[in-house]
Design brief:
The complex is a heterodimer of chains A (107) and B (455). Chain A is 30% helix and 26% strand. Chain A is an alpha+beta fold. Chain A is elongated. The two termini of chain B are 38 Å apart. Classes of the chains: A alpha+beta (107), B alpha+beta (455).
Chain lengths: 107, 455
């Protein structure tokens, strides 16, 4: 497992993601491509790393839920949509891009 | 016994041909059509203000017209939809006219209402219901702005009741999306309303298909091998034990795989252990997702517990006005030029005496789809779309903002295009106030009549 530390891995190499809105919160559902990838994501794709990655969007708080039977993680990012889907001034009012952006994050 | 429930619409604005294609290419017992996103009802409420016979998802009418041949040739086919929006009764009247004209006047239509709480705001507060904002705890009494809409998410019970009274088409206002599937399941399988695991299973199936093609390869990251032009919409084959098989019409595009289903399972949810509907409190963490053949995925072992005695209410209030405007900026210096255009626009507005409550600048194409995530525009950038947006309590201030793009056509730097489409429309903002109401204060109602009687 040392090789994967030397070479940066994109989240997208290990998982698929899809995001959407829940009021002014965003959710990003992440599913691992296989069991080994899920172990890696459990270890490395922490809520702290995800919050740090999305900090430029003003995201400061969130929570990670584990759904092991489907090798899934659900990230709920609080107040991530610039005022909520209806008030957001961004082109991405509903946080639809967050999943794709997370897949581009390097671990 | 298996019942086949297909979903042909995931939101208001979804593909108009999808429902017809779905019923033509696959034998369904039920077609569900889901039209109401979180804030769709506030838009529909405004339409109803202007015209008391409006306020429903009128996309349903051309869709229903397109379904007439299938309704004639497939006697088993029933339709359950939340197209009624803010005005299920008017939606049913318009649907009835289409059915009569098609010679289907004997079709029984069920109308589910009682979700609209706008006329009952004072009464509910007087009954000791503070309608606190779930996000910040403020009681509704503190809200100063006018309320546009307030709708409880009803459950599957009134839908099942309409079906039990012989309805072939059930038109509802706001119901929980999953309940569009749970209603038919309870009606067909004669479940009782405390068989929590079965209700959870049907809710999971409903959740998986409610966003249309998102379960079948739509909005999927590994999109390259998929034929999305002909994407098939999802079908849940429900079993009497609450398990289901998710599939799509044979020969259609897209894919149903363990991945497409797992991804949709986690779509727009909070805590996966408590996916709450008015029917059941579902635990998604017990669900197993197993491939069962080409484009067939089994979904099993959902578990559930008693539903909450509080119903979710989605309330929207007026919150000023918004507009955006865009310009295409071309050239090797496009990013710098776009920023200068933005600076000029804000400066001109300040000169005219306008400052805005909130404003926003995006350089689309330069990584601003997610502002701040990419530090600098990529090298070699040749063009960028400048997008500005404002939000303010004053309509005329927002109106004035929309006028500041066109003048740059002759007074700004060279290399701009698109100013004829730059001027965005001023639209009212509806802000969201999620809250709860005790179930016993709700009065869901079911009206069942034949199309020929609905005049």
């Amino acid at each position: 497992m040392n090789a994967d530390r030397a070479k940066p891995t994109r989240v997208g190499d290990l998982a698929l993601a899809r995001s959407g809105d829940k009021g002014n919160h965003a959710n990003i559902g992440v599913i691992a491509r296989d069991a080994a990838a899920y172990e890696r994501l459990l270890r490395d794709l922490t809520i702290e790393r995800v919050l740090e990655y999305f900090a430029p969007l003003g995201v400061v708080d969130g929570v990670r839920f584990e759904v092991p039977l489907v090798e899934g993680l659900n990230f709920l990012l609080f107040d991530a949509l610039g005022g909520g889907a209806s008030r957001s001034l961004r082109i991405d009012t509903q946080g639809k891009l967050l999943g794709t952006a997370l897949m581009e994050m390097e671990l | 016994m298996t019942i086949r429930i297909g979903n042909g619409a995931g939101f208001w604005g979804d593909n108009l041909d999808a429902p017809r294609r779905l019923v033509e290419s696959s034998r369904l017992d039920y077609l569900t059509l889901e039209y109401l996103a979180e804030l769709t009802l506030s838009i529909l409420a405004r339409l109803r203000e202007k015209d008391p016979t409006a306020g429903y998802a009128h996309d349903f009418l051309p869709v229903l017209k397109s379904l007439v041949p299938a309704l004639k040739s497939q006697p088993q086919l029933k339709i359950v939809t939340n197209a009624g929006g803010m005005n299920p009764a008017s939606c049913a009247m318009a649907a009835a006219a289409i059915l009569r004209e098609a010679g289907l006047g004997d079709t029984v239509i069920g109308v589910v209402s009682g979700d609209d709480l706008l006329p009952r705001m004072a009464e509910l507060q007087a009954a000791g219901c503070p309608l606190e904002n779930l996000d910040d705890g403020r009681p509704l009494a503190e809200l100063k702005q006018p309320i546009v809409s307030a709708n409880a998410y009803l459950g599957a019970q009134p839908i099942a009741e309409a079906l039990a009274h012989g309805a072939r088409i059930v038109i509802t206002g706001r119901v929980a999306d999953a309940s569009l599937t749970v209603g038919p399941a309870v009606h067909e399988f004669r479940w009782s309303w405390d068989e929590w695991n079965k209700l959870a299973g049907a809710s999971v199936a409903g959740h998986l298909i409610e966003c249309g093609a998102q379960a079948t390869g739509g909005y999927f990251s590994d999109w390259q091998p998929l034929d999305l032009t002909h994407v098939g919409y999802p079908i849940a084959e429900l079993e009497s034990d609450g398990s289901s098989t998710i599939t799509k019409p044979e020969g259609s595009g897209g894919a149903v795989t363990r991945d497409t289903v797992r991804l949709q399972l986690l779509y727009e949810i909070g805590n996966p252990r408590c996916y709450l509907t008015p029917d059941v409190n579902c635990d998604f963490t017990t669900v197993r997702v197993v491939e069962a053949g080409p484009d067939r995925v089994r979904v099993e072992h959902a578990t559930g517990a008693a539903a909450s005695s509080l119903y979710k209410v989605s309330l929207a209030y007026r919150d000023g006005f918004m507009a955006d405007g865009r310009l295409l900026v071309y050239g090797a210096d496009c990013a710098a030029k776009a920023r200068e255009c933005a600076r000029i626009i804000w400066a001109k507005l300040r000169q005219a005496g306008y400052e805005y409550d909130r404003s926003h600048v995006e350089l689309l194409g330069a990584g601003a789809g997610l502002p701040g995530l990419h530090a600098a525009p990529p090298a070699g950038l040749r063009e960028v779309v400048l997008r500005l947006a404002v939000h303010d309590a004053r309509r005329e201030a927002v109106e004035r903002f929309t006028r500041e793009f066109a003048p740059l056509a002759t007074s700004g730097p060279a290399g701009l295009a698109g100013y004829t489409q730059a001027r965005g429309e001023v639209r009212p903002v509806f802000a969201y106030w999620p809250t709860l109401v005790p179930a016993e204060l709700l009065r869901p109602s079911v009206d069942v009549s034949r199309a020929e009687e609905l005049r």
